[in-house]
Design goal:
With 360 residues, the protein is of the alpha+beta class. Helix content is 32%, strand content 25%.
């Protein structure tokens, strides 16, 4: 008991000495601003039996010192939000996301939250809250407001982290090598997502369609042209929840008396001409009636035919014709040319047969 009384007397003596010294010394001036003296601090006596290493400030004084630090921390956080938070603001909580909630200095309130298909999540002590469409900062503010208004925590500081993303991705379908859902947690462009999907297939069309999650009725068309300048100009930024569709390119068919009949993909920015299609078909044969070629085109009312002289096109005497997807180019054979081509062989066969029959 005597020891505790002596300690208390020592503390009070030190406090009194400091106060007298501060009153006798003139206030220090630096840059025109008067610095607060030691007497401005509020001191409090320490009860007996409490071990201390020095004088203890009152709660009011500690709050006065902590306030500038809190303001500095808030300012730093605001700067971080402006510099690095531009991308974070784009990432919003969606149905199916798994959140991790923590309250500073209240570990009992830490919990995982699974957002349901209606965008709701259940928070301990508070109940169901709507999280879908919010950023993590907005969700933190909502939980802090509820904890404070319900008198559960006097000054809550909540942090929310998205552990699993259920909707923060872009769905890639169509003519890509690896269709699927790819995460979009920062700035991701059309070309980056297509690269993640392994690139387009040889059958991909020259345009891609983007459907925004928030504007399903206003799709965006982006060019997948072979021209680098046009391709970069259409390199739009994708957002979480978007759907990227890479359709199949159009096909034209070349049949008849050609070297390699078949269907050919319109790979040159979705365009192909008649001569290009014939070239892909390895050209016309010597027995082809190129002057009697036809283009068969499917329309809304049925099929239409147009006669075309491929021979004049090959000779450069007529302008080339641009084909449409699903066009059929038919180059018929010429019976006269076929007969004349095979006439020598037929004549030789006939002579050989006659000689064989004349021999006894």
């Amino acid at each position: 008991m005597r020891t505790n009384i002596l300690r208390w007397i020592g503390v009070m003596a030190l406090a009194l000495a400091g106060s007298l010294a501060a009153q006798s010394a003139p206030p220090a001036v630096a840059g025109g601003a008067v610095q607060p003296s030691a007497s401005a601090l509020a001191w409090t006596a320490v009860p007996a039996g409490v071990q201390i290493n020095g004088p203890v400030q009152s709660a009011a004084a500690m709050h006065a010192v902590a306030a500038p630090l809190a303001a500095t921390t808030a300012a730093a956080a605001d700067v971080g939000t402006r510099v690095g938070g531009a991308d974070a603001a784009r990432v919003r909580i969606g149905p199916g996301d798994l959140l991790e909630l923590n309250v500073f200095d209240v570990p009992e309130l830490a919990q995982p939250i699974r957002v349901d298909d209606k965008g709701m999540g259940v928070v301990n002590l508070i109940g169901a809250l709507h999280f879908a469409g919010m950023t993590t900062a907005e969700a933190q503010g909502q939980v802090e407001s509820k904890l404070k208004s319900g008198n559960f925590v006097l000054d809550p500081h909540v942090s929310i982290l998205i552990r699993e993303y259920g909707t923060q991705g872009v769905s890639v379908v169509g003519e890509v090598r690896k269709p699927g859902v790819y995460p979009v947690l920062g700035k991701r462009t059309l070309l980056e997502i297509i690269a993640d999907a392994g690139g387009t297939t040889p059958f991909a069309g020259h345009e891609a369609t983007i459907k925004r999650r928030d504007a399903q009725d206003k799709p965006i068309t982006a060019s997948l042209s072979n021209d680098p300048g046009e391709l970069l100009a259409s390199n739009v930024e994708l957002e979480p929840g978007d759907t990227l569709i890479v359709p199949k390119a159009g096909i034209v068919y070349v049949i008849g008396d050609v070297g390699r009949p078949g269907g050919f993909v319109m790979q040159t920015s979705g365009r192909i001409t008649l001569l290009q299609a014939v070239a892909l078909a390895a050209g016309v044969n010597r027995t082809a009636a190129a002057t009697k070629s036809r283009i068969i085109r499917k329309t809304a009312t049925g099929f239409e035919e147009a006669n075309v002289n491929v021979k004049r096109l090959l000779q450069g005497k007529a302008a080339d014709i641009e084909l449409h997807a699903e066009d059929i180019v038919y180059i018929p054979p010429s019976n006269t040319k076929a007969f004349l081509l095979h006439a020598p062989a037929l004549a030789q066969s006939a002579v050989s047969s006659a000689i064989y029959q004349s021999v006894p």
